[in-house]
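[audit] Reproducing an earlier prediction to check determinism. Same input, same settings, fresh worker. If the tokens differ from the archived copy the diff job will pick it up downstream; this log only records the rerun itself.
[audit] input (197 residues):
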Amino acid sequence: MTQAIYAPPLLTARSIAQIGGKRSWSEPRPANLADAKALVRLKIALAREAEHMIFDVRDRGELLRRTAAELNAAVAGERGIFVLQRIGDLVGYIDVRSVCIEGAAEFASFNLAIRTRWQGRGLGTSLVKSAEEWVRRRGLLFLIFHVAVRNDRAFAFYERLGYTVCGDVVAANKESGVIGDYYAMGRMLDADEVALA
């Protein structure tokens, strides 16, 4: 006789939000100045666990000043920082900002990071959707960002969301501060979507 083992299904961000109680968290929300210390704690945790992201966390005071400056820019509308929170702790964030590439100002770029134990539950997708909405509201047309060549999981994730490689692999370069080889990935937002935002 075989015994059935019950394994609860993985919860998506939406299903977790619907459950309420201890396992609930908010949908992505804009970060504010009150999130500075929590965002610093998240960056420190991510620096320990993330193989492909690099945060300089040696000087906690400087990290807090940088984070506060980023949040001030977000409050001013110069960038969008969206966070996911679980019982008071931030578990992921995305930081999106407009960038000028070769004189063209239609671009935006982002950094996305989620604590390892919360990956694979739809949280990254919801954060990317928040960033895409921020980009559309500003009338920008392209999203472009870097993914480490060895980060197969992130590469597959972005491909599922419609992003593709834009150009050649960029090699590590100590002079520019690039630690490892990376792809530039991106996607053009549908012009009709941008016009409707």
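[audit] rerun output stored. Observation attached for the diff report: Strands lie at 29-30, 79-86, 89-101, 104-114, 142-148, 164-165, 182-188.
[audit] end
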